[in-house]
What we know:
Layout: E1 11-16, H1 39-47, H2 51-68, H3 78-112, E2 114-117, E3 126-129, E4 138-142, E5 150-156, E6 162-166, H4 168-171, E7 177-180, H5 183-189, H6 200-210, E8 214-220, E9 231-237, E10 239-244, E11 255-257, E12 261-268, H7 274-277
Antiparallel strand pairs: 1-8, 2-3, 2-4, 4-12, 5-12, 6-7, 6-11, 8-9, 9-10
Helix pairs in contact: 1-3, 2-3
Amino acid sequence: PNPSTPFAMPDVTINFGNQKVVAKKTNIIKTTKYTWLTFIPRNTFEQLHKFGNCYFLIISFIMYLGETTPLYVGTIKAFSTVGVLLMIMCVTATMDGLDDRRRAQADREINKATTFHWPWKAEMCSKKAWEDVAVGDILVVRKDEQFPADMVPLFCSGDGGNCYVSTANLDGETNLKLKSASKVVQAACAPKSNDNGESPDLEKEILKNVFGFTGSVVAEEANSNIHDFKGSLQLDKPQGVESLGAQQLLLRGTMLRNTALVVGIVVYCGADTRMIRNSQPAPAKVSSLQ
């Protein structure tokens, strides 16, 4: 852990002002279960976990012994049972394959979605695919847009540096959550006029003010707790340290509401985000009645 932080824990340090990033991981998500190589063996393994399939496979084997060995006389051909079993397993495998294909298509749509990225010291925003977002990126999220990664807000256009987010995609709650930016950075980045950053010129002014800072964000090790966050914002110019809590963490998958824009720095992406760490792998479909 960084000895200068107020938390004795493994941490992630993201420096801004020089584009130096200590931890950098991919923001690609993958919810599919199979690949072309693993589909047949893995799906067969899953289907043989069903009691009914195992039962008829054993019965077929016993019938086969009755046909080919003198242990006992088999009156029913094993193929009659094996054929029905294989047909059922092939239909189930086809359905599983189609479900996984739909998951892969949904993953592609999410990974190819775009957000507004502001390269350090650049003149204007550029679009960037969610899958290319990395820790340390400065992102601009506008009203009714989803956050592509877990971010710490540097500036919120709402009153008092606040913004509202909808977490319905994350926890199912429909009431909006209040989030806020660092008071020091918020105060210094606020535009001179008071239209809350809704015009392009004011957006540029805000970003120019953000880039006037140098420092680092120190965040706790990635975990699945969506209700807690421990970190600190350490500024070199102006010098100072400000603690960060759950109110200063914007989670991937949540949506910005009733606020024109938020400028933030990515602290967790991909598999390290709270949303992905709380997601469950697609379960195998097993009926309650065999």
